[in-house]
Amino acid sequence: MTRLVMAVCVVLVAGLAHAGELATDSKYGITLRVPDGFRTFPEGMAQRRAIFSYARGEPGEPGFEVLGVTALGGTIGREAFDTRPIVQGLAAAMGLTVVSSAQRPLAWKGFELDAFTATLRKDDVTATIAGVQVPVRGEAVQIMIMRLGDKDVGDELQAVLAGFEAESNWLTNDERIGKLLVGGASLLACVIAYVVFRRRRRRTERGDRPARRGGSGQATSG
User: Fold this and answer.
1) Structure confidence at residue 81 (pLDDT)
2) Which of 4, 17, 72, 154 is the most exposed place for a label (fewest CB within 10 A)?
3) Is the pLDDT of residue 20 over 60?
4) Residue 38: phi, psi to the nearest 5?
């Protein structure tokens, strides 16, 4: 059990806000509403990319949870993301076996994010985890929850996302459509203006030529 708690400290790292309040980090431009019952988890201050970390319950006891937010070191794209390597890597780092895992979509600011849930086990120790990478402008972050026991924490992670605020480098579908319409309208207006200009120019060129009346060998009456 001690090994598992230490592993949680390494994987999910710490911040310094009070539970139940808004935790803000100006460097990353993010704000997190700390869920009820969570307290600052200073024992997790181990990783250089730590932003926030909180715990709820008694360490080592069933139901003990750790919530962590870490920086990813870069931005992420909108392509489909396979989360299975993350689950396998976390399990290996903690010396646990993956009992089950699933990829599930979570909603954030109009986006559908690829998240994961998993159940891990070693001997009589069972833990559930859920994680998601969030496309924050400038640098993406990963939010994870880990809980001792077999209770799924996917819905809990969705609730955490509802209280997570940041600007994104992604565009929502409405924003993408809006920009497409604006760009398309501008291009169309440019094309129409060009066509009108060309037509007017051709008319002007035809109008500058003197009209020809009759043929060169036409006879006249005397």
Assistant:
1) 80
2) 72
3) yes
4) -85, 145
